[in-house]
Amino acid sequence: ETGVTQTPRHLVMGMTNKKSLKCEQHLGHNAMYWYKQSAKKPLELMFVYNFKEQTENNSVPSRFSPECPNSSHLFLHLHTLQPEDSALYLCASSHGTGPYEQYFGPGTRLTVT
Amino acid sequence: DAKTTQPNSMESNEEEPVHLPCNHSTISGTDYIHWYRQLPSQGPEYVIHGLTSNVNNRMASLAIAEDRKSSTLILHRATLRDAAVYYCILRDGSKVDSSYKLIFGSGTRLLVRP
Q: Which of B:14-73 have CB within 8 Å of A?
């Protein structure tokens, strides 16, 4: 148990659906991250939030829309996804946006049909 | 950004020590060496980090070469639970606006035989 939870753990959605991934951290951290892990590819950083403000968007397509209502919660809203977006989506948190340890959740396994 | 090179896979016997190497010949003076691991069906997990001196914690030890161009993660007694992908990552501590970045490579897949 890392103190970072993600729901749902598995999600299957059609290309026309809209769904949201949720992440919650119980560590009192100020920074939160979304990563994508595709099959046979390294983890890729998608978004970074620090004190609820987005500080990085790593050229992610607009069909992925993050939301950070407070320092403990992070959402990833999904719409009009493509089959190649199928991947493991990981949330992480850290004390701040410095060289701090990052604590990862278990991930949401997303399949787009 | 300085890069790291790790073997694709390694095997070990349970209860024996494991030495996981990492080469980082272009490391800069402000790069910290971080290790994370990812167990099957889980997110990555922080293991250890260091700058110049060798480091020990409850999970592992990190041995850093004197010229810092390579390092070795040491698991003193491998267990089946240590079977994972191990990532060696450099993080530039001097770059305030980007030192948070964890750039994952392919890592080393460790297989532990019972």
A: 32, 34, 41-46, 49
